[in-house]
Amino acid sequence: ETTNCTAIPQAHLLHFEMPRR
To answer: Residue 7: how many CB atoms within 10 A of its CB?
Structure first.
């Protein structure tokens, strides 16, 4: 369950950095 918690914020940061770039 710990991997799911890390996969959530990681994808959120990538999604935000994609359009920001």
So the answer is: 10
Q: What is the mean pLDDT of the chain?
A: 61
Q: Could you please report the per-residue DSSP string of 1-21? A: -HHHHHHHHHHHHHHHHHHH-
Conformational region of residue 18, where left means phi above 0, alpha means psi within -120 to 50, and beta covers everything else: alpha
Q: What is the pLDDT of residue 16?
A: 64
Give the separation between CA 9 and CA 2, rounded to whole angstroms: 12
Measured distance CA(13)–CA(4) in Å, rounded: 15
Q: Which amino acid is at 5?
A: C
